[in-house]
Structure formats: C-alpha cells, structure tokens
Amino acid sequence: MKEKLVVAVVGATGAVGREMLSTLYSRNFPATTIKALASSRSAGTRVPYGDDELVVEELTENSFEGVDIAIFSAGGGTSTQFAPHAVKSGCVVVDNSSAWRMDERCPLVIPEVNAHALKKHNGIIANPNCSTIQMLVALKPIHDVSPIKRVVVSTYQAVSGTGQKGIQELETQVRQLFNGIEPENTVYPHRIAFNCLPHIDVFLDNDYTKEEMKMVNETNKIFEDPNIKVTATCVRVPVFYSHSEAVNIETEKKITAKEARAILATAPGVQLYDNPKENMYPLATVAAGEDATFVGRIREDESIANGLNMWIVADNVRKGAALNAVQIAEKLLEMDLVCVKDKNLFM
Amino acid sequence: MKEKLVVAVVGATGAVGREMLSTLYSRNFPATTIKALASSRSAGTRVPYGDDELVVEELTENSFEGVDIAIFSAGGGTSTQFAPHAVKSGCVVVDNSSAWRMDERCPLVIPEVNAHALKKHNGIIANPNCSTIQMLVALKPIHDVSPIKRVVVSTYQAVSGTGQKGIQELETQVRQLFNGIEPENTVYPHRIAFNCLPHIDVFLDNDYTKEEMKMVNETNKIFEDPNIKVTATCVRVPVFYSHSEAVNIETEKKITAKEARAILATAPGVQLYDNPKENMYPLATVAAGEDATFVGRIREDESIANGLNMWIVADNVRKGAALNAVQIAEKLLEMDLVCVKDKNLFM
Fold first, then answer.
1. Is residue A345 part of a domain?
2. Which of A130, A143, A199, A234 does the annotation list as catalytic?
3. Are A219 and A226 a contacting pair, CB within 8 Å?
C-alpha cells in the first residue's frame, strides 16, 4: 500500500460526487488526502466526508498535481477537457461520464465482470453507463456458462440518473399536481410525475437514444464480444432511486431457470432475490442504498428454445456510478496499477 | 335499429363501470334504457350518466329479464356466476373479466382486429385484457403485412388497472411519503409510490404472472394463430392512467421502420405519434382520456434481421376496457348479432 495516496473527486457537489465521497469513506478507501473539486461556482462550499467536511476547490488544469487517482463525475464536457490534464500530471482517472467509454485507449470496467481489462489502462478508465453496469453484473455469470447471443432489454430508470435536478423535478411536479398547480417541466421534455418517458439522453440518427445505444455498444466492449446482439428501450419512470430492468436473453445452450438461479446465487455483486410465491422480487425500494445488483423473476422464456427472462434492479447512483468507480480505484490499488505510462497520450 | 334496446352495466360503480356509462353516453349508444347494476352494497346509490344520474340496482339472477346487452365489469367471480343467467334471459353479455376469455365457446374480440369472430358468438363475448388490447391494435396491421413470429413485451401499467382502490393507494402513499409518514400497503404487496412492481395478478406455477400469460394466450386466440410466440414481463408503475408498453417484434419478412410508420398511419384505432426529433412519442399523459392507441418510437431492431421496436400507449380504462366493450356492443348491433342461440349453453 502507498504511504501517501491522494484522491480527487471531480464534480464533488453533484448527486454522484457526493455518493462517491460517501462510498470512499464508508469503504475505508486508503486515501491519505481527499480533494473535492468542482466548478468555480461551487468553490468554497463544503461537502460531507464521513463526519467531516471538505472545502470544495475550483477545478483547473493544475488541480491534479500530486494527485494519484481522480474520480470524475462532472459530465462529458468536463471529462473531455480535464481528464487529459490529470493524466499529464501522472494521475490515473476513473471517469463516470460517457466521454471516454468507447475510446479504444480506455478500458471500460465493471470490477466483477472484466477487472482484467484494467491491466491495459493508459491513464483513463471509463465507468460504464448505470443501466449497462447492473445488466452485465447479472448477465456475466450466465454468459460464462453459455454465451449470450441476444439481449432485449426495457429499462425503468430513476430520476436520480439525471442528478439532483431530476430528483427535484419529480418532487416539485408531484407537489404541484397535489396542490392543483399545473406542473412545469424544466429538466425533462415532458412531465415525469405519474408518467413514463421513453427518452433518455439525446436521439441519434437511427432514432434510438444515446442511452439505448450505450447499452448496445458498452455490452460488446465489456464482454469483448461483438457477436452479442443487444436491443434496448430506455424509459424514465417516476422513481427517485434505483433502475429496474426487464431483461430477455437468448443463450447458445439451454439454461433452465433453476440453473440460472444456482449460477446467480453465488455470483459476485449479485443478490439473488427470487421467490415469487412469497412476493419476493427485486424492487427499487429494496435496492436503494444497497451495493448489490438484485436479480429475480427468473423464468424460462417459452417463446424460444434457449431463452430466459429476468428482472434486474440496482441503485443507479451507487452501483451504477459511485460504487463502481470506487471499486475500480480499489482494483487499481490491489493490482498495483496506479501509474501512468504515457502522460501525453490524451493531450 | 331496434325500437327498444335495454343495456345493463354490471359493476356500474367501479372505475371501469363508470367509464362504460360515460362511453355509452358520449358515443350516443342507441340504448332506450340503461340499467346500472352492482352488488347489494351499492344498491340505491347513484352513478352519473351524461348530465343525468342512474339509481344503482342490486345485481341478481333475475336482473337480466328484458335486457338485450349486458356489459360486465365486476370481476371474474361475478361474471362466472351471473353471465350464464344473463344468457339464459336471452341477453348477450360483453364481459370485461378474464373469466370467459379462454373459453372456446366465447369469442375474444377487439373490434379493429377480429370483429369477424363475433359471428360465432354464443351469448358471451369476452373483452381482452387491457395490455393485450392496445398491443394487438398496434400489431395487427403489421401482422397483416408480414406475419409476426415472436413478441417480447415489457409493460408499464397504471394503477387504474386495479380500479379505484389502486388509484387511491398510489395517491395516499404519495401524500404519506411527502408528509413524512411511513406509507401503508393495502392493495399492492409492496409500496407502489416511486417504485415499480413486476407483479400484476397472481403468480402461476411457471413463475409467470397471470397477467403475463394473458398476453401470451390472448394474442394467440385473437390472432387465431398458435404460432405467434409471445413472452411478457408485466410491471405496475406509479402512473394513474394509461398503460405503456415496450414491444419488440420479429416478422417473417423485413418491415422497415418507415414501412411500419406508413402501415400504422392509416390503421384503425391507431394514432401514429412518432417524431423523436421533436420529442414526440406516446406518453401516458397524452393517451389518458383518449380513444386511440398511440404508437411511436418505431425503429428497426438491429439485433435481428426482421425486428422492430415500438412504444405503445393507451388509456387502459378506456380502450383497454370500457371503450373496447362498448365498441363490441356497437358491432353486435351493426352486424345484427344481438341474439342468443342457446339460452342454456352456459348453465
């Protein structure tokens, strides 16, 4: 273990940034110093770190001098601009935005799934999209037993995926509606209260959203298998915390529901939660605040020979973002990979 | 047109029963008399019918003397018990429960899809499940162009599907949570406020819910095609009105998204609502109170050769229940089928 280990959290005042600080603290991450960085607007404010508080410093190109690991959660623009400077300072970046995910130089890592990919890192490691993380934590152990050929996924995503402002919008709209006031949309294009929006991130030329294509492309990259076919419909629902997913898969060989349960019962990061007769199945309210990815409603898909349906739920801010990023940082330490080979690679 | 046409609404005080009365009125259904029937508990109360009110009468085995058409929406038990008595009185029953749907003697009808099946009716016509109705209104025109081989559907179903008590439970729980009170569950097995429950109707031996198997079995019966394979995940979401559905289909021949849009643009009962660049896609808030089934987010599924994804939304109380039942009654009149061949068939 390093005698001195300086960790920076970029975007420390946001929903995910705060969760990152809380996760670093609660997991006893062996940092000797934690720097909370954010835009100039937030500089000077304080954010909680355990029982303590950290004074937020302004993010600049020079913020990473002496920093060993920087965990970014401040949007794609900030990551694109500042991660190369961090690497230039010799700092390893774990980035939660989508900016570097499909860059061939950057491993895209879920520690339970493909920690080995960290060995080839070049200074920036990308944290996958929240919807992808929980799906692949549940699917990897099955893929290892019989390769998955196709995935059809529909998501039920919480407003916390949009950050504090998403949480605020849902809360405000509910209050407005319950007080007879016409609700206003400022964050989402339509009302989210008591509504479902099949629209997360921007629309692309193929009429899929960027969020949907993230689930396709990130799955191929993380599984290192371009043959897995994925099609996704991503939907924002009026839930504060935790994303739920209805996932239909087709495997090469038959896996029974019973076999799938046995596989998932001991899978890393998975909490098998599947006893329908007792009304036990994963729920957003069960997963919120938890580290595990909950899997249940496992049943054979009778419409094809080798199909399975399952219901996968995880705390999108935690395993979907902060926890996964901190777990990557932990793996970097464990595998002795906190070093940058070419400081100018991204400049 | 009949000189005298007596129509009874059974379960007139429930959410769907009230919507049936409202639909009969607003569509100028040519009834000369409307009888509102309900359990003895509600007898004597009044329900609105246009600007007027009807006094609710107690449902008994003799309630159907002189009644031409009875529309039932009072649960499977009531339908099982009383529909045979209605038929025995010479009354044609349109039943909204699941009691008679899979009975070979009873056509299962969506007027836009299989009105022809009414010709073989024996006194009881079943109204399909709400989730099935809206899905098949959208899929039938595509199925007619190229047969659908497989459907993978995930639903986002409103609490009004559970009736007034579902609406009340969501509203109460939201108020409790916003007032710092621990919410109580009385209708659903878990909290529905800000949560998604992958559990609608009871669990069956194959670990699917009855709601999920309705979508499978009713699709086969309505399309008169046992070869269409359907797999469903049915989920209750914190929305008051309108069910949304993420539907993935595989057709025999390729249908492009553009072709699908052209087909659906002129399909009966369908409102094509698909312009993602303008943030235009079906929403629960758009469909609520409307007759049409809204279809959008149409895109080719790149994971298989002949696949399409779409997002289908309709008012579950209206097209999913009351409107479809009234449309069946209208078709019965139009096709001169308001008569019972064998009054004792169901006794």
1. no
2. A130
3. no
